[in-house]
Amino acid sequence: MNGLLRTRPKAILQWLTCDDNSVYVPQFRRDVLATASWLRSGAGSPMPFAGMAAEATHRRLMHRARDHDVAEADYGLRSEFQTLLWGPTTDNVTAHLFRDEGRLVITLEFWRQEHLLNHPEDAGVVFVAEIPTEEFVGILEDVVAFLDVAG
């Protein structure tokens, strides 16, 4: 995964690692492999709010997270969907993953003030990517294999 994620609705490629494109390989490899294994096991939940679009679901989860009086259940709900927690390389985005049968819906939003100042077009945008689960798992496993050979 070269830091790119194909997103919709514009079918654009969005560079995710634009703020920190260096990794500590052992940690990054372990985290990517854990995500691939987790998905391969069938884990991942569907969107929690019936009838709500992915972007709106992301915003609702984030709104609940920003509330200072957030209930533990709401925090747990948001945590259930967080993804791309692969260290400093991806900590410039808040991402959620929803499983819908054989496909994944991934939402992400840039949050770092410096990033938003340098890329004002990203402010307030929730990017949405949809990908077949097997394809995404395959990409993650390819990343791990590459890191094994390169390392």
Short note summarizing the structure:
This protein has 151 residues and is of the alpha+beta class. The protein has 5 helices and 6 strands; from the N terminus they run ββαααβββαβα. The chain is globular and about 40 Å long.
Structure description:
The chain has 151 residues and is α+β, with helices and mostly antiparallel strands. The protein contains 5 helices and 6 strands; from the N terminus they run E-E-H-H-H-E-E-E-H-E-H. A 4-stranded antiparallel beta sheet has the order 3-4-5-6. Strands 1-2 form a two-stranded antiparallel ribbon. Helix 2 packs across helix 3.
Globally, the shape reads: globular
The overall pLDDT average reads 84
**What is Rg?**
15 Å
Distance between the termini: 16 Å
> Which parts are unreliable, with pLDDT below 50 for 5 consecutive residues or more?
none
Relative strand content: 15-25%
Features:
42% helix; single chain; alpha+beta; 4-stranded antiparallel sheet; globular; 151 residues; two-stranded antiparallel ribbon
